[in-house]
Design a protein that fits this description.
The protein is mainly α. It has two helices and no strands. The chain is rod-shaped.
């Protein structure tokens, strides 16, 4: 009789686990979405930093050239 109770508990746990399927899937999708957004943000920050550095170098070069012509 106790074996049947254990088996019933296992079935009950499995049903509860399966009933959380859509919630679990949405949670995993949200985590994946957050990870992708973080990667995009990192790329944008890196690109923005490189672009700002290039503009700074360009401005410094232009300033240096203008001093050379004086």
């Amino acid at each position: 009789m106790q074996q049947f109770a254990i088996f019933a508990d296992i079935i009950s746990l499995r049903r509860r686990h399966n009933s959380l399927g859509p919630i679990r899937a949405v949670g995993e999708d949200l985590i994946n979405l957050k990870f992708q957004l973080n990667k995009i943000s990192d790329v944008m920050l890196t690109y923005g930093g490189i672009r700002a550095l290039n503009i700074s170098n360009l401005a410094a070069s232009a300033y240096g050239l203008s001093l050379g012509f004086l």
